[in-house]
């Protein structure tokens, strides 16, 4: 499965590179890319574990760039974000 997510407040290309490297190390990820210019992250991984992979990706990205928020999946056919909640919420 391959999905692309919108990023908000990704501050620098160096952080994007660190996030990409961290996501690529997650078990089950076959490919990952983080674009600072486009503010997007694409993850390709095992279908059976994809929800777990996304949760772990959110966790490792927060370690690198605490202010960055990962939004819902970007629909490739229209380039629009669906109406869905943010994937990451700060604990109350």
Number of strands: 4
Main β sheet profile: 4 strands, antiparallel
Shape: globular
**Rg over alpha carbons:** 12 Å
Low-confidence stretches: none
Give the strand order, joined by hyphens, for the main sheet: 2-3-1-4
Beta-strand portion reads 25-35%
The overall pLDDT average reads 84
Please report the number of helical segments.
2
Helical content class = 25-40%
**What sequence of helices (H) and strands (E) makes up the elements?**
EHEEHE
Structural class: alpha+beta
Q: Tell me the span between the first and last alpha carbons.
A: 32 Å
Report on the structure:
The chain has a 4-stranded antiparallel beta sheet with strand order 2-3-1-4. It is built from 2 helices and 4 strands; from the N terminus they run βαββαβ. Strand 2 and strand 3 form a beta hairpin. It is 29% helix and 27% strand. The model has no long low-confidence stretch (mean pLDDT 84). The relative contact order is 0.24. The longest helix has 15 residues, at 50-64. It has helices at 13-24, 50-64, and strands at residues 2-8, 29-35, 40-45, 69-73. By secondary structure, it is α+β, with helices and mostly antiparallel strands. The radius of gyration is 12 Å and the shape is globular.
